[in-house]
Amino acid sequence: MLKRLRNLVSPPAAPARGMSGVSPLLRNDPPAIEQRAALLAGKNISYTLKRSNRRRSIGLRIDDCGLTVSVPLRASEKWLHSVLQGKAHWVVEKLDNWQARKPVETRWADGEAIHYLGELLALHVAQSLFATPAHRRGDKLWVFVANDGDANEIERAVTLWYRQEALQLFVQRVAHYAQLLDVAPRAVKLSAARTQWGCCTARGSVRLNIQLIKLPLHLIDYVVAHELAHMREMNHSAAFWKVVGSVCPDYARLRKELKSVAL
Question: How many structural domains compose the chain?
């Protein structure tokens, strides 16, 4: 599966603390989730701190939500500070990369551009008293709403169009590559995952992120081939990539291209 990088830092050696005889009601456990900030490599970085009694190490994750630091429930401030400072340059570099990849926020209004299969379509918003679905005419997407000044209504209409287009196209591409790979997926569903372009369950259910409909077809095909290959090899071994390469010979280039796209 396509996953984000997670950096784990093991705890330093420390003497055991005699907490076993203390009633949970008397412990002053810190909050499970906190919003914090730290000076890292000369920059003031905001981050989310998550504590869990299941963790034994400190984990750093960077995605579109920013920096999340996961720590054991009673991790010391000294240990946390040491890990953050030790990874300061890595954190700042990764956050800068995410910021550079972050897509421009869409303005839901007449004349604005939206992405579709690697191209740009201009929104043509028209007022209508009837529930007319959005449809494409050349390089324009005609959107019909009751109030042409209501951004939320326009967004809902476009999102519905995206879902219809995505499901129809994804079903077609899955059928195409399923035949090439000699696999039989049980279902094709849309996903709104924040960190995955797609996934395939052991039972053969393929989920593809609706955001793929905005990307060029060759990237959609790569994700489809990738997920269907998991029906032959449920891992990322050399055997798995051989399966992907059998239907997508330039998968390495496409994989790199996909990684440059913000989800």
Answer: 2
